[in-house]
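ingest -> validate -> predict -> emit
validate: passed (alphabet ok, no gaps, 683 aa)
predict: started
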Amino acid sequence: MLFILSASKLYAQSSWTADNGNGTYTNPLFYDEFSDPDLIRVGDDFYLTGTTMHSVPGLPVLHSKDLVNWKVIGYAMDRFQQGAEFNLKDGKEAYGQGIWAPCIRYHNGVFYIFSNINKYGLQIFTASNPAGPWKQHQLKGHIYDLSVLFENGKIYVVYGVGEIKLIELKPDLSGFIEGSDRVIIPRGNAMGEGNHLYKINGKYYITNADNGRLQCARAANIEGPYETTVVSAKETMGTTLGWFTQDMGQDSALPAADAKLSMTKQSDQLLGSVPMHQGGIVDLPNGEWWGFSMMDFRAVGRTTFLSPVTWKEGWPFFGLEGNLGRSPRTWFKPNVAQPDRPQVPYQRNDNFNAPQLASAWQWNHNPVDGKWQLKGGSLRLHTLPAKDFLWARNTLTQRGVGPESEATVELNAQKLKDGDIAGLGLMNIPYAWMGILREGNHFVFRIFDQYRQKTINKPLKSPRIYLRAFGNFDEDIARLSYSTDGKTFENVADSIRLPYQLKTFQGTRYALFAYNTKGKEGGYAEFDHFQLNEPLADRTKNLPLGKIITLTNLADSRQLWPNPHGMLCPGRSFTVNSDSAYQFRVLDREQGKVALQALNGTGFLTITSQGLSADVRLIKEETPGSLFVWQDMLKGQCMLLSLKTKRFVGLDPHTGELYGADWPGTLPNRKDGTVFSWQVVNE
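emit:
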């Protein structure tokens, strides 16, 4: 389902896409994990890649014409060629390690991706076609969070955290030029990590992230001296810290199935590392500049956001003139000659009839060739010995997709052997799964919740079953269910808590698995008809054009009241009232712009002067100050971005003040006075 309703209304869609179909987009670009993004423009085309950790194929390459709609065209790395840990062998694993923070570049007809494999050094991938094939070059040396600039026959590499260094690569990519390594930004200049290097109008710029902000350094000479400033900060778009698994870092031992794990709910008032960070900038052929960066997005993982860039005093600030450093959630699409139609980045559904897997699939560590097949219209996974779910080889995964998604798959366990188990899991720490265990000649349906240390067994009449995992990634909650007929599903166990943690360093993933619990090779499981349903992907009803609505402030639960004195005020009581004194009609002004007309006859909601408190007025005649960009906060919530001030309508609920349009954005918990719930009134 992907069709256009009108020139102004939103597209209906079955999978998340940022493009609203009316000339605007709504962040995030992807509602599934895409961390450490880097992108480039080559002519009228844009190319994007990002971190894939221990998953393969790795380093996806996505293509776009408009920076909003992306399509994966290939992967730069088929598998890891390094040690046993990438194969889950000899008691070794590479969770949260693998390949990180890539830099994509284009020079003289060749595409390059530079990235490090933790503990194995710098890898360089080259291709004449970004869709592949890619050739891998392995260099020695650990070059942390690097970025590359080709200039005058030289290949400059900046890298480091806190202290930023510059080193040169040999033109043939065989190694580093001896003696070229030097410090260009000493410690003490507020720099962090995640470097992105550019040369713009004769000056050198390095964007760099630290503690939930994006820093920028600037110099006339690539070796410095550099001055630095913050170009993006505090922008969470109303996203709070979520649940977090304690004492579980990158270098932690992989916890056993019976480990007692501790999770904590982090404060919803703290910014933490949620705000936009680690990203860079890119220009359009028409001279516009845009910023890209990632945000920590609760149990879904880290994902990518797009921001307009405003140059001021020679600095590329994320945000709009009048509101620098903050970014809109919904904004006008980049102005390109041939924008893409709304499209989704990956093929997620898979009936396993094609000769290759759908593009969204990634293996957990390297697959074992010969121990899986696409055969007879199904995915066949052969069981190999493993001590528990996280050690199972040939586990096939897809990223969990927010705000909500539901993975369903058919499992035929007839060919399992004694001690084999196969099913559908939620890959995380702690994890949960459900599946079929064969014990002798008997089949048992089993559910395991690692956090609760809870196992549930149910008898089965048939080894053919349908499994379903539902994830609410805004609330960090999942549910497991099963069906014997594919129509009626029964929930099993309690709601499952979804955290984020730094061991796998990934968001929650749906996982198809099969392994043997008795230390031997067994039979095989067959999976079919994998379907990923996204119930909130269709956002056509999220912009109530032509509707009569009421708006309620999340901070004080008071409705917005167009006071007959001509100012927007908090409601006179905390009781929800649906009479015309509190009603607005949402008027379509095309290309994502709206006006709000009060039904009590006071006029149009209009920003006057500087938009200070009481400058949100009710005016009889509509003016340019009456235009807003509706910020879709999902689930019946919104913000109003004034096109006059480039700031948001809001108030401080503790002061008794009237509404202004001078608010830069919202706090993570959305209770600062700028976020509203909206309800359609029956006409």
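Confidence is low (pLDDT under 50) at residues 1-8.
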